[in-house]
Structure formats: structure tokens, C-alpha cells
Amino acid sequence: MKVFKFGGASVKDAEGVKNVADIIKTYKGDQLLVVVSAMGNTTNALEELLQLSLGHTSYADQINELYNYHLQIVKALFEDIHHEVHFFLAQRFQSLTRALQKARRQPFNQVYDEVVAHGELISSGILQAYLASMEVACRWIDARNYISTNNLHREAQINWPLTGSKVNRELIPVLEEEVIITQGFIGKSSDGYTTTLGREGSDFSAAIFASCLNAESVTIWKDVPGVLNADPRIIQDTVLYPELNYYDAAEMTYFGASVIHPKTIKPLANQQIPLLVRSFKQPEEPGTRIFEEGASQTVPAIVFKKNQTLITFHIRDYSFITERNLSSIFFMLDMMHIKINVMQNSATSVSICVDGNTTKNDALISNLSSEYEIRYNTGLTLITIKNYTDNTIEEMSSGKELLLEQRTRHTYQIVVR
Ligand code: ASP
Ligand code: MG
Fold first, then answer.
1. Shared-domain flag, residues 46 and 181
2. Residue partners of 344: CB distance under 8 A and separation at least 6
3. From ligand 2's centre to the CA of 410, what distance in Å?
4. Quick one: DSSP state of residue 140?
5. From CA 153, how far away is CA 161, in angstroms rounded?
6. What is the percent of the chain with per-residue pLDDT over 70, rounded to a whole number?
7. pLDDT digits 0-9 by tens, 28-44
């Protein structure tokens, strides 16, 4: 069986949903589980609605806009104005309204997950209804009944044994008869609350289902032709990698390549399930195949990670940085779930480049400010070149203000303003 994942961009309008349905139809005869994200920018809109609700600001216009966005898609897909999908949509928006109304009485991360999950629940419902109207035998399932997680809301971790046994027991028989349509990004904690796996987490959901079902492959259908050596929105003349091995692909996601969610590779690599990254705009093209024996690529990969903060911890008393200093800084980073993207030390200071999450970073700085003199810069970009050449370094660094520069055998990294 195969697992497909369609991101928000693939179902951002009615034409998109039709195209996705066409792709699914060409795999008639295959056992298929399809994971779909929220339509277009719905997750961002849901985040905004929650902020408005928590800030006691009226959100009537914004929720109407989001409802109308989905309604227009539904109207364009279904001729029958009495089709039950209208009832489904209204119900989901009622549930969303209820969640927003009680938002202030619940812990933020918990209510966040409940609110944003509506995007995936709605998109998957619409896609399933449309496929059914096209006479594709398909079934909508609620991913929360299968993806079991802990209660670390917004970054929930998977309970693999429980997830594996539920998926196996209940979904294998369904796949023999029908295409399964389900949501990415969401799960359920053991206390019964909706959880999410982190922004852009639908790729990871696809990998979880694939790993539990021991799928023959996972295909992520994107608006780019596959894994490119750079983001085509930033760099002209990108090159497509026809194949990659798991290790190289994982490393690119670590550096910040947003083409695949970083957690996706590991469960697939563990089971040697190939990951295909293909274009939903050119579904006949093979895209990129990521697998164990994928050839290492020599074309330099250039990855931009924006909104970075560079924090420098300076020793206060003219002594040198010791392993004990490093260890106490790392201990704090681990406790606060802050991930280092690149680091460097000198005789008297340690610098770390981290994602620009103000809440976490402010807390880190205040926790360590009695021990160190701390300086930081925000709004920076981390540029990584894997398999660098002199030319690519020159191209990427010229004219920029470099705040940190590092070079290892294969990797060149700079933090720039
Ligand atoms: N809809 C979620 C997000 O935008 C999950 C995903 O698209 O993968 O973060
Ligand atoms: Mg999305």
C-alpha cells in the first residue's frame, strides 16, 4: 500500500481539490491512505482567530471570511446545493465557534490544538465528499482515533506502540476496500484532548501511517518539482535532485530546508520506506526519490533559515569558557526545548544561533543573565551551503554583514543580517 500527502497549497481552491482527486483516481487499484493538510492558509487564519478571541476582540468578520472561503470551494465542487457537505461544513464551524468561545478558560496550548485542528478536519471532509461524488470508494477517518500522543500540546510526541496497534488492527481491512482520507498534523493525547505535532507536521503524519502500515512508499505532493538544491522563491536557476539518500535529506531538513518536515525521514529510514517528493502540478514527472541507496549529490545545497536570533554568552570575570559553562548552558537549552541551529565558542564567549521565538529566548536570557553578560541580535538569517564551492560562498556572502561564519569539510554556514 501507498501513503500520499497533499499539503495546503494543493487544495487551496476548488481546482486544486479536483486536481488532487484526479491524481488519486490514477492510482485506482492501489491501496491508498491519503493525508491532507488544511486548505491554503487556513492554519494561520485559525491562529489569528484564537488570538482575537483571547484578546477579547470581535472575530465575527474573520470567521465569516474563513467560512466563506471554504463555502466557495464547496459550491464550486458540488452542484447540488443540498449536498450533505454543506451540513458538514456548518457543523465544523459551529464546533470551531464553541472552541473559540471557551478559549480563555483552557490552557493556551491545549486550546490552540483544538482550534487549529479544525483546518485539517474540514479539508479532509471536503476532499472525501468530493471523491465519493466522483465514485471513488473512499472513507474519511479521524486521525485522532489512531495517532496517539503524549500531552505535550503543539509538539506532541507519538506513542508508537499504541498508534501502531490501532492503525494495524483497524485500517488494514479498510484499505482492502477503500481509499482512506485522513488529516495530517493532529493526534489525541491519553487524556482525550486533541494534540498537534508541530507546524507543517502533516508530512510527519504521513510517515507515521506509512511506518505503522509498512507502506511500500510515501509520496509528498508539492508545488515544486521535487527536492531542489535551493528554495526557488529565493534563488534563481535551481537544480532538481533526482535522488537523495535518507541521511542527506535529513541533514537538509535540519539546516532548514522546508520542503520536508524534519521528523519525516527517521521513521521511513528505519523501515527502508522510500519517500517520493513530486509535483502535484506535473504529476507525470518522477520528482525526487529518497531512499537508502540514493546517490550522494555534489550540486551545492543552499538553505536559508530566516528569523534567527544570535545570542552570545560572555564570561564576566576574565576567566575562560570551560566545559562546565557549556554544560550549564546546554542544560538550560534542553530544559527549555530550545534547539541550537549553529554554535561557536571563543576563549571567553559562546554564541548560539536559535529560532527567533521571543518568549523562549527572553526566558533563556533572563535565566542565564546572572552568570553571563549576554548580547543578542534578532531578525537574522542562517545560510547553510552543503557541498560548498568557492563560487557559492562568494555568491551567498558578498555584500552581507556576517555575524558568524563557520566552515567544516562539507558545510559552510553564515549568520547574516
Ligand atoms: N496545516 C498545518 C500547518 O500549516 C500542518 C501542515 O500543513 O503540515 O502547519
Ligand atoms: Mg499547512
1. yes
2. 350, 351, 404, 406
3. 32
4. E
5. 20
6. 100
7. 999 999 999 999 999 99
CATH number, position 14: 3.40.1160.10
Q: What is the tens place of the pLDDT at every residue in 187-236? A: 999 999 999 999 999 999 999 999 999 999 999 999 999 999 999 999 99
Say yes or no: 315 and 206 in one domain: no
Cα–Cα dist 390/241, whole Å: 21
Identify whether 292 is part of a domain.
Answer: no
Q: Which atom of ligand 1 is nearest to the CA of 199?
A: 9
Question: Rounded to whole angstroms, how far apart are CA atoms 5 and 342?
Answer: 31
Q: Average pLDDT for residues 155-159, to the nearest whole number?
A: 97
Average pLDDT over residues 316-329: 92
Final residue of a structural domain among 185, 215, 245: 215
Distance from C-alpha of 168 to C-alpha of 288, rounded to nearest angstrom: 28
Which of these three, 189, 215, 241, is where a domain ends? Answer: 215
Q: Is 45 strand, coil or helix?
A: helix
Fill in the DSSP letter of residue 311: E
199 within ligand 1 shell (Cβ under 6 A): yes
**C-alpha 98 – ligand 2 centre gap (Å):** 23
The residue whose CA is least distant from atom 6 of ligand 1 is: 200
Ligand 1 within 6 A of 40 CB? no
Answer whether 184 contacts ligand 1 (Cβ < 6 A): yes
Domain count, the chain: 2
pLDDT tens, position by position, 106-129:
999 999 999 999 999 999 999 999
What Rg do the C-alpha atoms of the chain give, in angstroms? 23
